[in-house]
Write a structure and sequence with these properties.
The complex is a heterodimer of chains A (283) and B (241).
Chain A (H helix, E strand, L loop, with lengths): L8 H12 L15 E5 L7 E7 L2 E12 L10 E6 L16 H16 L9 E3 L3 E13 L4 H15 L1 E7 L5 E12 L8 E8 L2 E4 L3 H6 L2 E10 L2 E11 L5 H33 L1
Parallel strand pairs in A: 4-6
Antiparallel strand pairs in A: 1-2, 2-3, 3-6, 5-6, 7-8, 9-10, 9-11, 11-12
Chain B lengths: L17 E5 L7 E7 L2 E12 L12 E8 L14 H14 L11 E11 L4 H15 L8 E9 L2 E4 L3 H4 L2 E2 L2 E2 L4 E6 L5 E4 L7 H37 L1
Parallel strand pairs in B: 4-5
Antiparallel strand pairs in B: 1-2, 2-3, 3-5, 6-7, 6-10, 8-9, 10-11
Classes of the chains: A alpha+beta (283), B alpha+beta (241).
Chain lengths: 283, 241
C-alpha cells in the first residue's frame, strides 16, 4: 500500500527537536546540500537536456526551440516559456490533471530567476524585429520527488540551457524561416555568465535549513525560495517567493540573507564543476 | 527500389539494442526502464491504493489504470504538455494489454496506477512503455499470471521487419508511403496476444507472417525482462543480509 499521508506530528516534533541541537536525520549541517549528480543530453530529440539528481530527488529538463511572433512590448526579443509538470510518476502526492498551483509556482520561480538575471540574451534570439523570433520552450519534469524540487528544477533548467544548441533552419521562397527539426547546428544559445540557481530556505521550529528531504519538507512551516545569480564576484537576488502557512520574522529573513552569499557561492561552484564534468563526458 | 537492407544495418528479425532495468524510481512501489535503441520509456507503479472518487470503485476487484505520456522534448517538434487524443488511446490499449495478467481480485475498491513517461522517442514508444510497465508491475509485487512483452512489427516495402524505427516508419517506395506498422503484445507463457493494432495496408496472409515474427521477438524480450527482474531480486536479497 502506498499511502502518503505527509509527516506525522511525532516525526515533525522529533525533526524540530533534532534541529535545535543542529542535527538532521541524515547527519547534514543546516546549510549543507546533498550530493549532486548531473547528466547532460539525456534526450536526443531536444535542443538541450539534462538530468539532475540531488539526494533521492531526480529532475529532468529539456529545451525545444520554435519560431514565433514577438510580444508587442518587446518586438526585438525572443520568447521564453518555462513550464513544469509534476508527474504523478514521481510521487504518490501528485495526480494526473491540469497543471496544479504547485507546478505553476515552481516553473514561475525558475522562469523569473532566468529572466530577471538576463541569463539568456533574448535580444540575440530575434530573427526579424516585430515579425519573427525564436521561442525557447524550457520544460521541467520531476522523476522522483525526494524533496527540494524547486532548487533541483532550477539546476536541471540551467544545465539544459547550457547544453542547448540552435536547430538548423532554411528560408522559404516567401522569406519565412522553417526549422529543420532533428538537425542541429553547433551554435549554443546566447547565455550570460549569471547562472541563476535557486536556494530554498525552510523554517522548522526556530531553525532555518536548506535542501530538505521529503520528510523535512512535509514538516516545514514556511519556505523562502531565492533565485540568485552571480556577476563577477557579486551575488544578486533575481526572484523570490515565500511559501508555507507560517510567517517569517525579520530576524529570520536577516539570517537567510546573511547566509545567501556563502551558500550561493558553494552551490555555484559545485554545480559548475559537476556540469563541466558532464559536458566533457558528452564530447 | 525495394527495402533489402535496413537503414541502421540490422537484420530484418533483429531488434535495436535493448536496455531493461527495474527499481529506477525510489518513491514508486515498482518501477522500470526499457529502451529500444533511441526509444526510452520509464514507468512507475503506485498501488494498489484506494480509488477516488468512490463511485469508480469496484467491490469485486482492484482496477488497473495506465497513463501514457511523452515528455515535451522527447520528439523533434515540441509536444504540448498534457494529455492528447493519441496519449489517451495509447493509455487505454496499454491498460488492455496488461489487464489479462494482473490478479487484482484480492484488492477490492483499489486502483493500481501505472504511469508511463517517454523520455526519448524514436518509434515503438507504446511497446517500450508496455514492456517497462509489465516489469514495473512485477517489481511492485502485483500478483501476475504471466509476463507481457510487446514489439512493433510490419512490412517496410516488401520486407517483414521487427522493432520498426522512426526512419522506417516514414519509408517511401516510388514516392508513396509503403509501411505497415503493427504493434503487438504477447503474454509470454500462454502465448496469447493482448495488443494488436495496425496502421497501413497489408494482405491477410501477409499479416500471419508478421505475427510470427512478432511472436519470436517477444520471446526474446521476455528473456531480457526476466533477467532484469532477477538481477534486481538478487540485489535486494543482498541488501537484506
Amino acid at each position: 500500500m502506498n499511502m502518503r499521508m505527509g509527516v506525522t506530528e511525532n516525526t515533525q516534533r522529533r525533526i524540530i527537536e533534532y534541529l535545535k541541537e543542529g542535527k538532521r536525520f541524515d547527519n547534514r549541517g543546516l546549510f549543507d546540500l546533498r550530493d549532486i549528480q548531473i547528466e547532460t543530453n539525456i534526450s536526443n530529440k531536444s535542443e538541450g537536456s539534462a538530468r539532475v539528481r540531488i539526494g533521492k530527488t531526480e529532475v529532468v529538463a529539456g529545451v525545444k526551440l520554435g519560431l514565433g511572433i514577438p510580444y508587442t512590448d518587446s518586438p526585438d526579443s525572443g520568447v521564453l516559456t518555462v513550464t513544469a509538470e509534476l508527474l504523478p510518476l514521481s510521487s504518490s502526492k501528485y495526480e494526473p490533471g491540469p497543471p496544479s498551483e504547485e507546478s505553476i509556482e515552481l516553473s514561475r520561480i525558475i522562469d523569473r530567476g532566468i529572466r530577471e538575471s538576463e541569463f539568456i540574451d533574448l535580444r540575440k534570439m530575434c530573427i526579424e524585429p516585430k515579425k519573427e523570433v525564436w521561442t525557447i520552450y524550457l520544460d521541467i519534469y520531476p522523476i522522483n520527488d525526494g524533496g527540494n524540487l524547486i532548487d533541483a528544477g532550477a539546476m536541471a533548467a540551467v544545465a539544459a540551457l547550457r547544453t542547448a544548441v540552435l536547430p538548423k533552419t532554411e528560408k522559404g521562397k516567401d522569406g519565412s524561416t522553417r526549422i529543420l527539426f532533428g538537425e542541429f547546428t553547433d551554435k549554443n544559445l546566447p547565455l550570460n555568465e549569471t547562472m541563476p540557481l535557486t536556494t530554498t530556505f525552510h523554517k522548522l521550529g526556530n531553525q532555518i535549513l536548506i535542501d530538505p528531504t521529503t520528510e523535512e519538507e512535509d514538516a516545514s512551516e514556511a519556505r523562502l525560495s531565492i533565485a540568485i545569480s552571480q556577476k563577477k564576484k557579486d551575488h544578486f537576488i533575481n526572484a523570490m517567493q515565500k511559501g508555507g502557512k507560517v510567517p517569517f520574522t525579520v530576524e529570520e529573513i536577516n539570517t537567510i540573507l546573511d547566509n545567501v552569499p556563502k551558500i550561493s557561492k558553494k552551490l555555484q561552484e559545485v554545480f559548475e564543476e559537476k556540469l563541466k564534468k558532464a559536458e566533457k563526458l558528452n564530447k | 527500389m525495394t527495402y533489402t537492407k535496413r537503414f541502421d544495418g540490422r537484420k530484418f528479425d533483429e531488434m535495436r539494442p535493448i536496455e531493461a532495468k527495474v527499481g529506477v524510481i525510489p518513491n514508486a512501489d515498482g518501477s522500470a526502464y526499457f529502451s529500444f535503441g533511441d526509444t526510452k520509456a520509464i514507468v512507475a507503479v503506485y498501488g494498489p491504493r484506494p480509488l477516488h472518487p468512490v463511485f469508480l470503485q469496484n467491490p469485486q476487484k482492484g482496477i488497473l489504470r495506465c497513463n501514457y505520456d511523452m515528455l515535451s522534448f522527447s520528439v523533434t517538434e515540441r509536444k504540448k504538455p498534457g494529455p492528447s487524443r493519441r496519449s489517451k488511446e495509447i493509455s487505454m490499449v496499454t491498460t488492455k494489454s496488461l489487464e489479462p495478467v494482473v490478479q487484482l481480485s484480492q484488492f477490492p475498491n483499489t486502483v493500481t496506477d501505472v504511469f508511463i513517461s517517454i523520455i526519448q522517442a524514436d518509434a515503438s514508444t507504446r511497446c517500450a512503455g508496455i514492456n517497462a510497465a509489465a516489469m514495473a508491475l512485477a517489481h511492485a509485487g502485483i500478483p501476475m499470471t504471466d509476463m507481457v512483452s510487446a514489439v512493433s512489427t510490419g512490412f517496410v516495402g516488401k520486407a517483414v521487419c521487427v522493432d520498426i524505427s522512426k526512419e522506417e516508419e516514414d519509408y517511401e517506395e516510388d514516392g508513396e508511403k509503403d509501411v505497415s506498422d503493427i504493434p503487438m503484445a504477447f503474454l509470454s507463457r500462454s502465448d496469447q496476444m493482448s495488443l494488436f493494432q495496425l496502421d497501413g495496408r497489408i494482405k491477410p496472409e501477409e499479416l500471419k507472417e508478421v505475427v510470427e515474427a512478432g511472436r519470436k521477438a517477444c520471446k526474446k524480450i521476455y528473456e531480457i525482462q526476466k533477467e532484469a527482474l532477477k538481477a534486481a531480486a538478487i540485489k535486494d536479497e543482498g541488501k537484506k543480509k
